[in-house]
């Protein structure tokens, strides 16, 4: 029997990714409008495709990673690591650590999304490490 510290993290991460993925398809997610506005303000580029297509792509990748975490743990962990690393990178570059909590003008800002991305990155790295392919041993 495998210890719970080895078997639980992939399922916790999969549940988190499903939760986050549902939000991407459920409706208005203000973070993508914020991304579009921040990129436009910093670069002068209008990236209208980010909302809704960036949201749908991110949600689909989160769902795929959750499915892979159950079926093929290493590959699910790897995809979850890439998605989470992308979220952390976005926060460290053009989103900022604290992001508005809603799309209303003057909304309060919070670092919760950044910390969630960091937590997902750490957990996905752990899952990927624990599920890594190991060379076969010849025990006789």
Described by strand count, sense and barrel closure, the largest sheet is: 2 strands, antiparallel
Low-confidence stretches: none
Gross geometry: elongated
Share in helix: over 70%
Main sheet: strand order: 1-2
Rounded radius of gyration (Å): 17 Å
Q: Distance N terminus to C terminus?
A: 22 Å
Q: Taking all residues together, what is the mean pLDDT?
A: 85
Q: H/E element string?
A: HHHHEEH
Number of strands: 2
Determine the number of helices (DSSP H or I, runs of at least 4 residues). Answer: 5
* Structural class determined from secondary elements: mainly alpha
**Proportion of residues in β-strands:** under 5%
What does this structure look like?
Helices cover 72% and strands 3% of the residues. The chain is an all-alpha fold. A two-stranded antiparallel sheet has the order 1-2. It is elongated.
């Amino acid at each position: 029997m495998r210890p719970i510290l080895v078997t639980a993290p992939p399922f916790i991460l999969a549940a988190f990714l499903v939760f986050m993925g549902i939000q991407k398809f459920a409706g208005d997610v203000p973070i993508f409008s914020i991304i579009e506005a921040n990129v436009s303000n910093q670069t002068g580029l209008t990236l209208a495709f980010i909302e809704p297509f960036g949201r749908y792509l991110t949600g689909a990748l989160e769902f795929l990673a959750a499915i892979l975490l159950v079926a093929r743990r290493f590959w699910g962990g790897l995809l979850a690591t890439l998605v989470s690393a992308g979220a952390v990178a976005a926060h460290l570059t053009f989103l900022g650590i604290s992001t508005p909590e809603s799309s209303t003008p003057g909304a309060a800002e919070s670092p919760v999304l950044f910390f969630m991305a960091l937590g997902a990155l750490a957990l996905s790295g752990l899952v990927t490490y624990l599920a890594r392919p190991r060379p076969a041993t010849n025990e006789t």
